[in-house]
Amino acid sequence: MAENIEKNIWEILTQIEPETSRLQETPHRVAKSYMELFEGYAQSPEQIVGSALYKTPTQEMVVLRDIPFSSHCEHHMLPIIGYVHIGYMPDTSIIGASKLARLVDCFAHRLQLQERLTVALVEALTLILKPKGVAVGMAAEHYCITQRGTKKKGTQLVTQHFSGVFCTDRVLRQEFLRTSRL
Ligand SMILES: [Zn+2]
After folding, report:
1. Does 25 qualify as catalytic in the annotation?
2. How much is the pTM?
3. Which of 69, 76, 104, 152 is deepest in the core (most CB within 10 A)?
4. Has 114 been annotated as catalytic?
5. Are residues 117 and 76 part of one domain?
């Protein structure tokens, strides 16, 4: 795959840069960085979480907020950079906090729509952790909006998605949004 990417990046470079003599190594570097930026396709949420589920000592909401992430939009392959907040109401288990951050990377390291990324995180956690409910909120800058086209610098796309008790309990949902400062 990396070789194909190199070949195609070289084709693109020759279309946009008249002087390519300095860029001989660029396709190789780009291919290598793509393998890292899009490594999420080779990962599965179940594998990432593994056995990091523990008997819960609490019935209260657990929130990991301000998880930084970067992804790429599937429409322009330009960066999406922002923060994710993940909350859940435990039933029988809690999950290792670092696993939540790794789950974000697993989905963020694929071509994305922010809306789909938000839903994917809720669905994966609902499936794996089987909590009473999951809440995910995200705010991110999309370079295809801030650096090109309308060039609206400073704009952020805010998305949220809920499952279980967060769908029915408005107070709980408000509590999550307050805690995550979304
Ligand atoms: Zn885009």
Report:
1. no
2. 0.94
3. 104
4. yes
5. yes
- Same-domain pairing of 8 and 94: no
Rounded Cα distance between 64 and 87, Å, is 6
**Cα of 112 from ligand 1 centre, angstroms:** 9
Quote the number of domains for the chain. 2
CA dist 64 and 93 (Å) reads 16
Residue whose C-alpha is closest to residue 155's, from 72, 105, 80: 80
For residue 78, what are the domain limits? 50-180
Task: Check 46, 60, 75, 115 and give the catalytic one.
Answer: 75
Instruction: Please check whether residue 140 is in contact with residue 156, taking contact to mean a CB–CB distance below 8 angstroms.
Output: yes
167 is catalytic: no
Question: Is 142 part of the annotated catalytic residue set?
Answer: yes
